[in-house]
Design a protein that fits this description.
The structure is a homodimer of 260-residue chains.
Chain A lengths: L9 H15 L5 H8 L3 H14 L2 E4 L2 E4 L2 H11 L2 H17 L2 E8 L2 E8 L14 E2 L5 H9 L2 H8 L15 H14 L2 E4 L6 E9 L5 E10 L5 H27 L5
Antiparallel strand pairs in A: 1-2, 3-4, 3-8, 4-5, 6-7, 7-8
Helix pairs in contact in A: 2-3, 5-9, 6-8
Chain A binds a DNA duplex (30 and 30 nucleotides) through helix 1 and helix 3.
DNA sequence: AAATGCGTTCGGTATTGGTGAACACATTTA
DNA sequence: TAAATGTGTTCACCAATACCGAACGCATTT
């Protein structure tokens, strides 16, 4: 958890700290939070009353919980990314056609965030949710995005990166990663071979806008079990690439003002 | 917009006011916000720096935008409702089987909120998003939920209700609504006949937990065009009711500790 | 009937959020 | 080239307020 006291408006920091406590504990009461955060009950009570009044917290009985207002604002935040509107129906199509789970991811700040995820017919893939952060170096989407960035930005993201997430089947150093990113760039496709979750493979392609700048990535997730080499190396990659192209076209239409 | 100064922690109120401005204007800069809210630039700057540090706001260039952190927390808030986990795959099935859009809604505080929405193959239904609020009296989901509540709670929700949302095809008074809610209770099904959006019809059924308490509703949305009377009065209602039953069973399993 | 749990209210005070002016930097105008 | 305008940012001052701690009301438990 971030140290909330290092920012100029400490009261807002306290409110957020209380929100995080509510999330961590799946709802809590005034006294409980005051204990955990080592604050007075009255202070906590004031914050909760404020957050409730503002619609971010719901009180039921003795418990306070975070409200669906976050989902409302979250849906809006997602709609800020043109990739979402342009890609959501293509994800449905990709997921149906491939029988795999599929989704969209974007780079926000220094993390790759899942914008949308659709569970496939073979339901035994990890339960990724919209809003989840994806590891940079051991997921197909992360690699696709890294490869599409300029070197300066990539260096920023990987500064101090430890290469310790995922299953350990992935790279152990920056130079190994850089080598793979070269391949990703030439193929226009990134893969993850059981590097993120055991028995799970991923395939992803970056999507750029009309200006050539990165808009995000579309990815596909599937269980290794019963997956033939040809399917992983030819069929599925083909579907992902064609989906990415389709999204690029939709994006071009919306970014240039429709069917130029 | 709520008056933010009526709550004890005014600084949090100000932060939220700034967030709302960012949403309203699709991102904004320090000066712009200071103008709109009639506050000093330094104050706005401090709040934005705090919100950025806490991860709720993203700065790109001169603009600040709300971040996907809201989506992350929103997904969590949604997962607090057992109806979501129990119903999301049933919604997919219902949507596929019926060819309509379908979704889940719950009562939070005094509003009915959409937990999940899946666009159907016939894509010309309103673009409902997770987190959207649904009108109480002119949507099928709203009526299903109202009908399932105790009288006291229903009175609370409808106190001061104006019956002016939707297309105007709906009820104009509380007594008319009450009459329909009786029918809803006996049929176990609520409908909306172009009352919310023109040319759109809805069907919904409430879902209760093992304690008999309301957990929310599952709904279906479809265009009137090309919809036969039999389909709207028999086929689709049958699908919705069987979906609701299926979710009730899933809920029972999870609430009693799996396959009792 | 006493004791413990909860959330809430209240006054006092040290902290701090807000202001407005000055600043650095970029872009636009003359 | 120089001035003018537009950003976001920094700073010192002061009134406003977020915080504390004790008291309170109300349940539930002992």
């Amino acid at each position: 958890m971030v140290d909330v006291s290092e920012f100029p408006v400490t009261a807002t920091g306290t409110s957020v700290q209380i929100l995080e406590t509510l999330i961590e504990r799946n709802g809590a009461g005034v006294t409980e939070i005051a204990d955990v955060l080592d604050r007075s009950k009255s202070s906590v009570h004031n914050h909760l009353e404020t957050l409730t009044g503002l619609g971010f917290v719901i009180k039921d009985g003795y418990d306070y919980r975070v409200s669906l207002r976050f989902l409302t604002i979250g849906s809006y935040a997602r709609s800020q990314y043109p990739l979402y509107a342009a890609g959501v129906s293509e994800v449905a199509q990709l997921s149906t056609a491939s029988g795999c789970s599929a989704g969209l991811a974007v780079l926000e700040g220094d993390s790759v965030v899942c914008l949308h995820h659709r569970l496939g017919p073979d339901t035994d893939t990890p339960r990724v949710e919209a809003g989840d952060r994806l590891p940079l170096d051991c997921t197909a989407a992360g690699k696709a995005i890294l490869a599409a960035l300029g070197e300066a930005r990539r260096d920023e993201l990987l500064a101090g990166h430890t290469f310790d997430s995922g299953t350990g089947q992935s790279h152990s150093s920056r130079s190994e990663l850089d080598a793979e990113l070269g391949t990703v760039r030439t193929r226009g496709l990134a893969v993850d071979r059981e590097e993120w979750y055991p028995d799970q493979r991923g395939i992803a392609a970056a999507v750029e806008g009309v200006d050539g700048e990165l808009r995000g990535a579309i990815y596909l997730l599937t269980a290794t079990e019963g997956l033939s080499g040809k399917r992983f190396q030819q069929d599925l990659p083909g579907l992902v690439i064609s989906s990415a192209n389709s999204i690029r076209n939709t994006l071009r239409e919306s970014e240039t003002g429709c069917r130029e």
